[in-house]
Amino acid sequence: MTDSAKTRPVFTNIHVTQIVSYRLPPAGIVSILHRISGVVMFLLLPFVVWMLDNSLSSEISFDAFTNVFVAGAAGIPGWFVKLVALGLIWAYLHHFIAGVRHLWMDATHSVSKAQGHSSAVVTLVLSIVLTAALGAKLFGLY
Amino acid sequence: MSTFGSKRLVVGAHYGLRDWLAQRITAVLMALFTLALLVQVLMPGALGYDRWAAIFSQQWMKVLTFVTILSLTYHAWVGVRDIWMDYIKPVGIRLALQVFSIVWLLGCAGWAIQVLWRL
Questions:
Q1: What residues of chain B lie within 8 A of the CB of A57, using their CB?
Q2: Which chain A residue is nearest to residue B85, measuring alpha carbons?
Q3: A56 to chain B nearest CA, in Å?
Q4: Which chain A residues are Cβ-neighbours of B81 within 8 angstroms?
Q5: Residue A65: which domain range?
Q6: pLDDT digits (tens, 9 = 90+) for B75-112
Q7: What's the rounded Cα separation, in Å, for the pair A138 and A124?
Q8: How far apart (Å, rounded) are the C-alpha atoms in residues A67 and A44?
Q9: Which has the closest alpha carbon to A73: A57, A85, A59?
Q10: CB burial class (10 A; 0-12, 13-18, 19+) of residue B60?
Q11: Number of domain units in chain B
Q12: Mean pLDDT, to the nearest integer, of A41-50?
């Protein structure tokens, strides 16, 4: 093996356990949250399909579906089901907006440090504001 | 494909570009579904069972929802597989998680398609 091959630097991914100790710029936060929101939706997929099933199958199952958010089910209180739904709403909004940001960057090639920063801030603010608005509706604040 | 000479491909499994493109195409399809559903949900009037079920009963909406289910399944597979490849190094555990992901995703897709098609 040549000397240059031996001294070649090794780059590794940031491990999940290291996330907290890294000070990330907004674009980095959007990036890791894109991943986390994806995992959240992946894990909650059976819950999503359950909601699709019960909301569509019949009027009786539709009532059961809406009732879960009030009375809960299988020992899980209704407010917790709402909280899980709110988590899904945030995950969907963040993943959607961060995804559109990706597509926009791909389409326009408008990749600069300033644009990456500002679009990341927009993504974070927009996803949180929309989540708060829909969350207030979900918990019956208006 | 020639395996020698100046045009020789020396990189990996060649699924990089395909997955990159697939991730974007499936994302656009899911975004279209989101917009189509949002527009119909936001139409005036109370959103009870009848209106909700009527939205998904239209043939074009069934087709769009079906395409979205397939898109989501592939999109989630690419994303989750990337995560396992990034963080899980032991081959055995990674394989087990990949198999779990396929079962999880195909199970959900089958269930969702069943819901759609008996409507």
A1: 115, 118
A2: A13
A3: 5
A4: none
A5: 25-138
A6: 999 999 999 998 898 999 999 999 999 999 999 999 99
A7: 21
A8: 19
A9: A85
A10: exposed
A11: 1
A12: 96
Q: Is residue A11 part of a domain?
A: no
**Positive or negative torsion for Cα A66, A68, A69, A71:** positive
Domain that holds residue B85: 16-117
pLDDT tens sequence across B22-67 = 999 999 999 999 999 999 999 888 889 999 999 999 999 999 999 9
pLDDT at residue B4 greater than cutoff 70: no
The alpha carbon of residue A19 and the mean position of all alpha carbons in its chain are separated, in whole angstroms, by 16
CA A39 to chain CA mean position, Å:
8
Residue B31 is assigned to a structural domain of this protein: yes
Structure confidence at residue A71 (pLDDT) = 86
User: Is residue B3 included in any domain, yes or no?
Assistant: no
Is A1 part of any domain?
no
Domain-embedded: residue A98: yes
> Which chain A residues are within 8 Å of B103, Cβ to Cβ?
none
Verify whether the Cβ–Cβ distance A42 to B49 is below 8 Å: no
- CATH number of the domain where residue A36 is located: 1.20.1300.10
Residues 6+ apart with CB under 8 A from A113: none
Q: Of A118, A122, A68, give the one whose Cα is nearest residue A93.
A: A122
Q: Is residue B64 part of a domain?
A: yes
The ipTM is 0.86
What is the count of structural domains for chain A?
1
Distance from CA of A46 to the nearest CA of B (A): 6
B1 part of a folded domain: no
CATH number at residue B85: 1.20.1300.10
